Amino acid sequence: MKTADEYVASLAAMKHNVWMNGAKVEKPWEHPQIVPGVNIVRLTYEWPQVPEHQAMVTATSHLSGKTINRFTHIHQSADDLQKKVEMTRLYCRATGCIQRCMGADALNALSIITHHADSAFGTQYYPRLLEYVSFFQENDLVGNAAMTDVKGDRSLRPHEQADPDLYLHVVEKRADGIVVRGAKAHNTLAPYAHEIIVLPTRDMREADADYAVAFAVPADAPGITMICRGAAPAVKRLMASPVSSRYASVESLTIFDNVFVPWERVFLCGEWQLAGYLAETFATYHRHSYCGCKPAISDIMLGAAALVAEYNGIDKAHHVREKLTEFMITAELVHACGLAASLKGQAMTSGTYLPDLVYANVGKYYAGTNLHHEMALLQDLAGGLVVTMPSEEDYRSEEIGEYLHKYLAGPSNLTVDDRVRCFRLVEDLTASKYAGLMMVASLHGGGSPEAERKAILRSYDVETRKALAKKAAGIEA
Amino acid sequence: MKTADEYVASLAAMKHNVWMNGAKVEKPWEHPQIVPGVNIVRLTYEWPQVPEHQAMVTATSHLSGKTINRFTHIHQSADDLQKKVEMTRLYCRATGCIQRCMGADALNALSIITHHADSAFGTQYYPRLLEYVSFFQENDLVGNAAMTDVKGDRSLRPHEQADPDLYLHVVEKRADGIVVRGAKAHNTLAPYAHEIIVLPTRDMREADADYAVAFAVPADAPGITMICRGAAPAVKRLMASPVSSRYASVESLTIFDNVFVPWERVFLCGEWQLAGYLAETFATYHRHSYCGCKPAISDIMLGAAALVAEYNGIDKAHHVREKLTEFMITAELVHACGLAASLKGQAMTSGTYLPDLVYANVGKYYAGTNLHHEMALLQDLAGGLVVTMPSEEDYRSEEIGEYLHKYLAGPSNLTVDDRVRCFRLVEDLTASKYAGLMMVASLHGGGSPEAERKAILRSYDVETRKALAKKAAGIEA
Amino acid sequence: MKTADEYVASLAAMKHNVWMNGAKVEKPWEHPQIVPGVNIVRLTYEWPQVPEHQAMVTATSHLSGKTINRFTHIHQSADDLQKKVEMTRLYCRATGCIQRCMGADALNALSIITHHADSAFGTQYYPRLLEYVSFFQENDLVGNAAMTDVKGDRSLRPHEQADPDLYLHVVEKRADGIVVRGAKAHNTLAPYAHEIIVLPTRDMREADADYAVAFAVPADAPGITMICRGAAPAVKRLMASPVSSRYASVESLTIFDNVFVPWERVFLCGEWQLAGYLAETFATYHRHSYCGCKPAISDIMLGAAALVAEYNGIDKAHHVREKLTEFMITAELVHACGLAASLKGQAMTSGTYLPDLVYANVGKYYAGTNLHHEMALLQDLAGGLVVTMPSEEDYRSEEIGEYLHKYLAGPSNLTVDDRVRCFRLVEDLTASKYAGLMMVASLHGGGSPEAERKAILRSYDVETRKALAKKAAGIEA
Amino acid sequence: MKTADEYVASLAAMKHNVWMNGAKVEKPWEHPQIVPGVNIVRLTYEWPQVPEHQAMVTATSHLSGKTINRFTHIHQSADDLQKKVEMTRLYCRATGCIQRCMGADALNALSIITHHADSAFGTQYYPRLLEYVSFFQENDLVGNAAMTDVKGDRSLRPHEQADPDLYLHVVEKRADGIVVRGAKAHNTLAPYAHEIIVLPTRDMREADADYAVAFAVPADAPGITMICRGAAPAVKRLMASPVSSRYASVESLTIFDNVFVPWERVFLCGEWQLAGYLAETFATYHRHSYCGCKPAISDIMLGAAALVAEYNGIDKAHHVREKLTEFMITAELVHACGLAASLKGQAMTSGTYLPDLVYANVGKYYAGTNLHHEMALLQDLAGGLVVTMPSEEDYRSEEIGEYLHKYLAGPSNLTVDDRVRCFRLVEDLTASKYAGLMMVASLHGGGSPEAERKAILRSYDVETRKALAKKAAGIEA
């Protein structure tokens, strides 16, 4: 396994084509609006070196038998799934989002669908994928999962779009590989990933066959352009944006302008029947991941809520305690789904363990549709200062700083500096661009609430329940 | 293990002192308003004989090594806990409530607290309890857990009540045992149980020491009077009350009028420090059980909802499908908590496995506070006929029956009889005394929502979350 | 205006063809399961005699200039609408449902649509209707609005049904009138009404023209059969069913088997273009009425909640006070909609005032989808005794009554009798057939939640809001 | 009445002591982070000149009989109150928040409490206030209501704080006036207001008498320092922050460092018994205002939601239409409360009309606790681009702009530019600092949800409801 510094060094050896705010970013790994994203990934290289974390954050490769980073592992048991969801919660308590889960989720989904494809269509994707997984594990790589197409008019299928490139598709098949064109949106971590793993975004029909394509390419492959929205700058600030200036995702809108992919990195190509299955399988893994990261957000918000109540002197109030309990209930309903999805996970034909689809979806759905309420609770406990507090410059000012030190005081056993820091934390978590990102990510990350509801409805065994009702009513089958 | 008939025969050999509607009930096991309760318990004797159910509904005694009914088992592993919660869901899909769980929950709780008492106070409760468990398993008994005192003025502690008997307490200690007086409320299954297992209902202080008492007595012990509210009569009806006339709980307000308990059946007596711990431990087990039974109710309601939508010809409507999904989400959030509580269950000092308190409480809380919404959804899909449908007598009437057969028709591929049955099912489930019972039981069974919130808040590790928030804010410990 | 006794006498002079439980009911107005319904209507004859109520419950006829019962009035101003909704709340605080509103709502809707029909189609419905209103006011009549057809397969339009009678329709047009066949469901109050006012239940297309029919007939017209589900018997009980044995609606499934209607009572006949408009206009009036009656239910439930908290000794607890506040918020959100719908009501072409459609629908929708939660709150505060309390016979028993008097005691300053009464009230309101009726009526009375959402969406001015958003975004029209 | 330019000129003639980001702001009315606030106030001077708005936004002074800006009016009727709440909605559809309401709300509250004080304590506050109102109307002034103290440790009363200045108080009484010290937080509009109207923030006890003080001072009075958090800069941007760069509030933390107030501007001084009443009366007026502005936010969000659905090509989807309906229901429940509070408003002893407290509180409470859900709905409909869309600089870039123009396309009948604008609008409304401000303002503006619940509970007539329940239960008073 690599060290964090080796990870950054390996980025420096690549040539990501990254743009931000209208300009080319020369050394993305050092850019102040990208460093908060790199910091997160660094952590995933650091913890495997920390003895107390090792049992959870590393695994034994079923290919090489070696100890590997769990983020490169193909899950071989329900226990692997449980460790993954618990590891995710642990990491995200520190970082909000750990990002690196998506590569693992993509590889696991591919390990199921390529195996399935080979038996259904006589292809040779699965052995190819195992080669790739070995390479991935050996080099301890970071993979971005590029799934969501830009989609254009969502009422139209891929091949019906006015511009055929609005979904990524194969534009040429050659002896040595394929050429693809299109764009993938919301690619968290792409500008500091080693690999881009591309998956189809939805079910396809025969006319969409060219769009049914999955593959991996180096993140700096010719033809790839990443246009990014940056995190809050990782400058030295004492108080403001305390979370998001240290740890925050960076997303890329990733353009594939006639990118060449050699056959040994192509994992689906034209088998349109499996596009939806692959998308859904990735989604199941990724929603399972959310059952770890969203409770971690609740953990931080609960902590902030308990803290700000103290800094306001209201921690004994009954309604405060009731509100704190809300965070607990939300966090554990979601995490319970993650654990249940693990416990009821099953081995697929390739041996890979897949979490239970219903539990993974129910957990993500509940998390996604309740975060806004948690934000409201935290803002409710904190009060108006969250948004009206003067700036740090005012607080440090020679002329007026004294006023603020006087009038921002809370209970006298607590320092004013810390009280200000606490409000800045609440601001960062609930009333900032970063908060906006968290809200939208909770809804749409891993799929929208509507997608989750549909997945649940489609896979749920309603007939068994109808039979129960018929029996109860005395209706003969 | 006994057969169902042997169970009933064993009841016939006892002399329960049962009253209902102002009159003594001579043979409770045959009384039409008690038979629906007996029917449920019969099922718990039948399924252990059914090969496909055996792995789930039986267990191996850790005392005798024999195969026993799982409802008499002391859980020895997380897997035992998982089987218990899954068994509960399976049974309750047929019966709504399986009742017999409470005896097992009481024995398991006692197996933890008696062990604890012996090491803390040098008592000999644990070996006594093991004797009792052996007897209980050997004879395949049904136990009622009598916990909730009538409580009088709830703002007062037990010893402060105007009448000292408003909480059950020890009134005399003799060489051979103790004499107790008081009343326990809401004792489901008591009139057809073999044993009454009495537990304290809350935490106690030193002045309440006489109220800190736990013991077991035969259900027909001298001095016990059961005053019951009956189920819907188990008469032969074609349509009405299709669930509750077959399977429904009967509750007793159980009076203990100077009841003698020999020392070998006394499991706590005066150790007031442990009263709350015992109450909470039983509650944890019982809330864990609810994570099985409440999803079963959702299963039945989902089935009824899907069915009634068909019988109305609206099953394709988008809003109908959305509403069906609500049942799924609710059911699985709760059941996920049951599974998670099992998976994270831990061995206590006696070796007994205890489900995770937080998950058990979160699951029961969510179930209890969402059933009313599920009822609303089912009524919403069914429409006004649920409550305005004329009686079965009208439907069978020679004079007017034809009108009803004509005008109660739904989609023409479905029979009118079945449509009427379907509405009667919805009525029974949502708009009847039985529905009232289900609603109140979902809120208060195993403890009220407020009790569950308090249990969560009390046991949740808030300090760890505050530390996360401090670190995120840059506040030094 | 009539007295209450004159009202009953006038029923005795009619020959309603009423059936219940498979038997013909000879004197409906005296039948113990119908008397609770008659009691409600009696009240609407009593209060106009009570000086303190007169200003609210009477009105001045715009036809005769005489003082009339407000339930026979055609609203002439926003103030009339406000008085109607406030009168409804006042009455329903006593009775739960006042029933008589529906006749007024039907007449008012007809006064708008007949006027509209006459100008659109050159018909003479409006003068006919005014004649009928004069007759109705003069005789201080009670009208049932028979709207909801039995509908058969709801995915089919009226003329597409397997049996053409599943929606009521004209089967013959004669010189002196029309003959109709079909059945109307959920006809509250029909067995003790003077008149049945029939309205179409939905929008129609040309092929459904025979189904676009509105008219009035005496409730005992030849060919009408009412098959009823009765209220709780109005027997002399000391405690049980304290509300529903005194005041409760009775519904009829009303069969029209070739009923003759003279032309002077026909108000729509074939003008299918107006069927939906009439249905929606009646619905708007009736949902406006719900903005009065549902807050009254909240009033009673709040009172019961505050009371039962006292009888349990928990009235000082913070969570109890929070729950009480929930009832207040729910009640006043709904009533505010009733007031706003009145204030923003507008005169239609006939001069009749129509409440604002959006506010009327929003209010009813909110009420209908929140009652179940209010029931949960009340059950939560009351506890398990709501459903496990032994019967009144047990309480009165010589043998065991003393036990109950002892063990059902609450705070010592309150009597046990009253505590039992209080729990019986909560049972009646939340855990009984009556509660089931209340729940379903809150959802479906005046139309289902889905119907209300559609009405809101259809009539809401979305374009104005889109223009606001475009302007805000800088998008040129 | 002034013109907008005269308003700005009048600011230029003053010397507000304003600080932002650590520096003194020399001409606040021109500062790019304050101009968005000034723009809002300008509008309140423009509309009174626009014929179609005049009837709503002007009033006739009850003092001078002249036509005045309604924001300087003392409400004389229920119709005045209705116009105020409807005017507020209309203005806020353009600006989000109109700010100027607070001055009117403060004057109206003072007109009630000063009158009350004079009769209770023989003071002469009311005539003084009328003088001030005349001056205010005559000069068409903008008033900031400075109410919320910084509060320090909220578990302590004003006089108990470690630093006595943590609530504003009188430090000296002189022959010509008083001297005050303290700080008021969250003072929207203060840096571009003419006057600061100070009110006590809560109920007081005798020991807090020095804190029971209300007065008005020019916003540039000596000793006042305003430390502000600015709005998004009002720079020329094509797309980003389209709302908040044009119209957004600016808040001040306003320091009163020994500020002198002449007696003729003192409206309460030491009458601690009335402090709570004044605070609550202002809150009632201000919550009533929220029943106008919050529906306006819903209006804009509904428009944005309908628009973004079109730009995504999903406007026909059923779930989209359901979500649009949610905004309508929320908006109109709140506005209905505003209308009902107006309709049921009552004249106080001074003749001033006060909106109904319960309706005003219920409406604000519902608005405040539902905005987060509306944000979730809007984000749900929009999708991930809300937060991951590259910057405007990227979109305009010569090198990569073409990619974005290609891949951000939606339905082909709509322009890409407009689609980008639409997403920028959603970002501004839901995922920005401005959105954070909106969320916190919805909760805490005019008081927190907890304050509103308490106000409702305290003033609601529970006894009448208990009497209803007793009567229903058969319990004798």
Strand order, sheet with most strands of chain A: 2-1-10-11-7-6
- Parts with pLDDT < 50 across at least 5 consecutive residues of chain A: none
The largest pleated sheet of chain A is described as: 6 strands, mixed
Secondary structural class of chain A:
alpha+beta
Question: Which term fits the overall shape of chain A?
Answer: globular
Put the structure in a nutshell.
The structure is a homotetramer of 477-residue chains. With 477 residues, chain A is of the alpha+beta class.
Which tags fit this structure?
homotetramer, 477 residues, alpha+beta, 6-stranded mixed beta sheet
Write the layout of secondary structure elements.
The structure is a homotetramer of 477-residue chains.
Chain A: H1 4-12, E1 18-20, E2 23-25, H2 35-46, H3 51-57, E3 58-60, E4 67-69, H4 78-95, H5 101-121, H6 125-138, E5 143-146, E6 169-173, E7 177-184, E8 195-198, E9 213-218, E10 224-229, E11 251-262, E12 266-269, H7 275-312, H8 318-343, E13 346-347, E14 353-354, H9 357-368, H10 371-382, H11 385-388, H12 392-396, H13 401-407, H14 416-430, H15 433-444, H16 449-459, H17 462-473
Parallel strand pairs in A: 1-10, 5-8
Antiparallel strand pairs in A: 1-2, 3-4, 6-7, 7-11, 8-9, 9-12, 10-11, 13-14
Helix pairs in contact in A: 1-2, 4-7, 4-8, 5-6, 5-7, 7-8, 7-9, 7-10, 7-14, 8-9, 8-10, 9-15, 9-16, 10-14, 14-15
